[in-house]
Amino acid sequence: MSGGSLSLALAGKPNAGKSTFFHAATLADVEVGNYPFTTIDPNRGVTHVRTDCPCLDRDHRCDSENCHNGIRFVPVELLDVAGLVPGAHEGRGLGNQFLDALSNADAVLNVVDASGGTNAEGEPVEQGSYDPVNDVDFIREEMDLWLAGIINRNFEGVERRSRSPNFDLEAALTELLGDIGASDADVAATLRSIDYPEDPLVWDDADRERLARELRARTKPILVVANKADIAEPETIDRLREAADRVIPATAEGELALRRAAEAGVIEYEPGDDSFTVLESVTDEQKAGLERIETVLERVGNTGIQQALNEAVYEMLDHFTAYPVQNETGWTDGQDRMLPDAFLLENGATPLDLAFAVHSDIGEGYLHAIDARANRRISDGHELDEGDVVKIVSTAS
Ligand SMILES: Nc1nc2c(ncn2[C@@H]2O[C@H](COP(=O)(O)OP(=O)(O)OP(=O)(O)O)[C@@H](O)[C@H]2O)c(=O)[nH]1
Ligand SMILES: [Mg+2]
Question: Is ligand 1 within 6 A of the CB of residue 44?
């Protein structure tokens, strides 16, 4: 994880719709300016996952800016990586530079042009003439080989250290791989899952590649966004589903249009909704555009953008949302704000993990925690759940 908050990267070949996805998914923040540096730079922004706010279980809705009438939006970082072409790991199309941008990512959304209207290089071709299933494989392959390259280039350091008497392979590899966001737990689990020679001096390229592929799967899991679903053949989306573990049909362009219309007050729509309501009279042009999107929503179910973000965070990365409060009765902080913060934690996290997520001082001074829903003390080993409201008692608070 980077700086405590989750980070998702949009990867994929050129022209697949990454930037459109990025704009659609970060729009609310760009406009509302909820966070001081909402758009961190053109390719780095804040988006949100959507969940039920705990205030739905109270008499009145909370006043958090991220709660829209009980729909809670929890911030995650989104990166828009420039388009990758086959051979990127060897530097094609500035590939290495672009791939290095994935170092900070906890997961990758591979945006694929499901309409088959762009070739492997991202150049426009006749719609349906290119098979987007290729893009599922090639992005995974480029990421695996990019990581293998990093390991190869730095393996000399591991070999050198292996001559020292108290050499520890796991520690040496963790140091090598820390820059790409692999934790010691990731490295340990990866080593357990592969066969490898004890002595680094006898490792060959195949050993390093095996390590890279396993580690990539563990530290940079990929979700496929089958974009341009508005013009894609359903049969192609079915085949994408067979080629990858997680596939979400989407229309980034449709989501962008809906969010813009909602910002302008023309429609009522929350990201992730499966429909929208027209609020004021619209021009014929707007009407035609909205009707087109409505047809897609009826066919696909939703625009898929919020669904892709949610699937990545809550399912693929196995996270849940917890809400720290200072007052266990009112669910408020020191300034009387109800449910001011929401934290995404990995399943299995305890109150102590939440305390550290809030602040390292709170974590270090942790004494005990109170389940604010039930108003009772919870044991230190208790695993928190989605929607838990928790008061942390700490010497630092
Ligand atoms: N039909 C359709 N077109 C889309 C959709 N999303 C994006 N596009 C179009 O696809 C083209 C490429 O979109 P971008 O968002 O610039 O693609 P990109 O992946 O960022 O491209 P690079 O930055 O070159 O890597 C644009 O013409 C978009 O309007 C969609 O959901 N449906
Ligand atoms: Mg782009």
Answer: no
